Amino acid sequence: MGEGSGSGDGGAAAERHVAVLYSTEDEWAAHLVPFVRAAFDRNEQVRYFADATDARLVIRTLAEHGVDADSAVRRGQLVVTTAAQTYLTGARFDPDAMIGLWRDAVDTAVRQGYGNLRVIGEMSWGARRITDAQRLLEYELRIHHEVFEQLPLTAWCFYDPRLMPSEALDVLAGAHLTSKGAAPRSHERRRLTVTPLADRPGFRLSGSAGYESRRATTAASAALAASTAKDLSLDLSGLDHLDIAALTDIAHAARRRAAKTPLRLVGAPPALRRMLELFPELGADLQEAGR
User: Fold this and answer.
1) Could you tell me the residue ranges of all domains in the chain?
2) What is the mean pLDDT of residues 21-40?
3) 202-209 and 193-196: which strand pairing?
4) pTM of the model
5) 188-285: in CATH 2.40.30.60
6) pLDDT tens digits for range 130-189
7) What is the CATH number assigned to the segment(s) 1-186?
8) Residue 74, exposed/middle/buried by CB under 10 A (0-12, 13-18, 19+)?
9) What is the per-residue DSSP string for 223-243?
10) To bridge 39 with a disulfide, which of 44, 66, 239, 260 should be the other Cys (CB 3.0-4.6 Å)?
11) Would the pLDDT of 5 be above 60?
12) Is there a contact between 158 and 25 (Cβ–Cβ < 8 Å)?
């Protein structure tokens, strides 16, 4: 594997997995062009996974800004494909299959003599009625530790606020430690956000984990259950509210973990401790930090 593989550097991973928000074609181009130009300057391969954008527009826009995209396509340094051929193979979304695709794509780029792989993926398909599209948040959370801390990969997730509900955009953009472009439109204070921890395997919950945020809680729990990290932490210090259903989801996820080690709870609010006193069976696979 190329340089940086297996580094476990959460800070570097945060800089390579980026949410990019844009609302006009000019804003889209302003992110696209320097990303591709930098890759070519460094002898890196670029893959663009188009969804709402016509693949021909990608090539034409690069050419209009002085990037020789046609030659790059001919020599294989630039590959423009679609979300249907990558994220949605089999007309459904499978996070595990996509994580495997990243490993294969990086190996292929390195074998072809490129120093790194850079990818832009349009994520507007996440707002459509696609089988298992609701697992997109689980995927965005998992790949920080399972992909970007392990592989020499840089990927920008392109989100167009015109094509995605603001509440979904808030949560998905919040799953990245780095973002570019305009902030999401919705700023509801109590909405739950879930973010990977930069310094160790795990996630941070902020806001309200109640009925209105059940989808986010379910996605976070799925990411917890899928993690193979031996030491996994869940930072709850930013929570305003946690209901019994959310706690149950977290407890069940901890029980399903392949590592079979307790899930460490950091900054657990007093309300959670009271719930665990009432329902001690939920705490079997949870361990409060410092206790």
Assistant:
1) 1-186, 188-285
2) 97
3) antiparallel
4) 0.90
5) no
6) 899 999 999 999 999 999 999 989 999 999 999 999 888 999 999 999 999 876 555 555
7) 3.40.50.300
8) exposed
9) HHHH---SS-EEEEEEEEEE-
10) 44
11) no
12) no
